Amino acid sequence: MHFHEKPNTYVTNVEIKVRDLQRSLKYYQEVIGFKILTVETKKATLTADGQTALLTIVQPDAVEEKTGFTTGLYHFALLLPTRRDLANIITHFRQTGVYFGASDHDVSEALYLQDPDDNGIEIYIDRPEENWTWTSDQVHMVTDPLNIPAILAEANGEWNGLPAGTVMGHIHLSVSSLSAAEEFYTKGLGFDVVTRYGGQALFISTGRYHHHIGLNTWYSENAPKLGENQIGLKTYSLILDNEAQAANMKENLRAIGAPVIEFDGGFQTEDPAGNVVLLKF
């Protein structure tokens, strides 16, 4: 999983807003398999390895339902270490009656589901990178049916929650303008476009990963940004390589008119669709 190590720029913690913290804690522990790292009255941070924060869930004081037409989270994606891990969680879902979708993307094999507040979740594994197909700087990706029987053949019947090697593989965002998002993420944050999927989605990364961030306007073109207390994405975090990269990034963001707010150990910005990004090094 070297794509989720420095010097790459990659996603770590995703912070979402939920209606009921206790309901969400039950779901994310019993269904998805997280462990609790920290918990407060209306906020909890979840982990797979007992040390690394992957997901933070927050219950706003005046929580509001998300409307059907806003920007924000399409899904966050948990990357498992092995195909056997994927087989074991499929077995767990089947045994507990959890509904999920599934797709083969050529570069990866993925499951899709939604939490009790309809926040999107992907759980996936990568195929070996030497098997990915690149045409110049574009990686081949598809959406085909997943061969679940072939995956289940690798199951060993042991599901003990998310394996310790699980990372936040990527985040996929709903944006209001694909061109504005592309300018922000490429010129401002330095990502490369590695796949264009029709005219309404693109995938970006560093270090020739198939994508650290997905962007689409499938249900959000010209949509308003998510409200402060509405269920959905609150923030997500990117890890930078060093302070020099951070300084250059801040300069680039200011050049395209994006906000830059300093904090200890990093800074905050916001994409044109209102998605808040925390950048740390």
UniProtKB/TrEMBL annotation:
Residues 10-126, 167-281 form the VOC domain. CDD domains: VOC_BsCatE_like_C. InterPro entries: Glyas_Bleomycin-R_OHBP_Dase, Glyas_Fos-R_dOase_dom, Glyoxalase_1_CS, VOC_core. It comes from Lysinibacillus contaminans. It comes from the Bacteria. This is Glyoxalase. Keywords: Metal-binding. Signal peptide: none annotated.
